[in-house]
Predict the structure.
Amino acid sequence: MFSFFTKNTFSKGGTFTLFFIFFFIYTNTLQAQTEEIPWQFFVGINAVDTYPTGASGSGAFLEEYANLNHWNITPYPSVIGVKKYMGAGFSFGTRFSFNSIKKYGALSASDNYYNIDGIVSYNLNSLFGGQTLKPFLELGGGYALFDEQGAGYFNLGAGLEFWLGENKKTALILETIYKNTGETYGVKHFQHLAGIAFLFGEEKDTDGDGIPNKEDLCPEQAGIARFQGCPDTDKDGIQDAEDSCPFVAGIPTFNGCPDTDGDGIRDIEDACPEEAGTHENEGCPEMSQEDLDRLQEIGQILYFATNRSDLHAENYKILDEVYQILERYSNFNVVVEGHTDSVGKASYNQELSEKRATEVRTYLIQKGIPSSRISSKGYGETRPAEENTTKEGREKNRRVTFKVQR
């Protein structure tokens, strides 16, 4: 199976050349340690020990396990392997190694050793969450060739990964593996490994924002580096999770909500978001005293003919001015109040006053004031502005006045 490997192939110089080829390839694809970068490449040295295996002619199981005098050590790179993280702490992979066997316990020898393994490893820190020291267990099988004697083996191993640096790019790894055929043939042995592991492979970026999932606090929402992968949809410098108005650019004072008119009231609570106003008036501007006075003046000059509710040309001019005032103050409502003189029956005058108020309301609505902002009410002859005993007094009582409300 391994006849193409010769001693010349694995001469010291040739092996170092092989090592540097692998080192160049994989260190050019290194990225920070994460389960999102699933591939691990390993290169190192190995030692083979047949003594503490309990086999015939050897010591008892684990006897003189740490006695280096029994070890066949290849001091230059003699192991390469690769494995892929599959999730839940488990990794699968393969490993190839070679060695020169000089002794089987106390017996001298001169054999070549080649080995290939299939690996299933479990990271114990999946239970505890550490990032630097990672003990692991290994189960697997393989094929080992001692000179011309080959056999299939099952493997039990344990080891420790020590990840270096802030980003855990590289690890030192120590491992020991017990290899047994389960039969009388084959050479039971321990193999000890020491070397360096590198991670490689493309990092997962589920949301495609250029920030790998491990570093992304919002891995399923495209975001920006400033907020570790979380989004700022309205680009106001406040991430969506802390932004009360994530789709409209705002200011920190209002947790990301805008205050377009700068009146200290955020737009979502401002009845007039584009006009600076007061808190008392729900963000809308207060009606000026000048405009309030003018509405009162208009109420003294908006007269009707006797027994009439229809508007005439002079009424239109005055009502256009009322419209302009109401248009400036969108948060104010108005009640149109109709009045009459005392000529005729009180019931008739009540109905006439209501018609006058309705006529004025209808005109302002037609001009563009929302109907919800205008109501009308008639008072008949009950609220005279002047005495009804003179022609002039009665004329001033046939009028419409305006009552402003918030």
Summary: The mean pLDDT is 86. Helices lie at 12-27, 125-128, 289-298, 313-328, 346-367, 391-397.
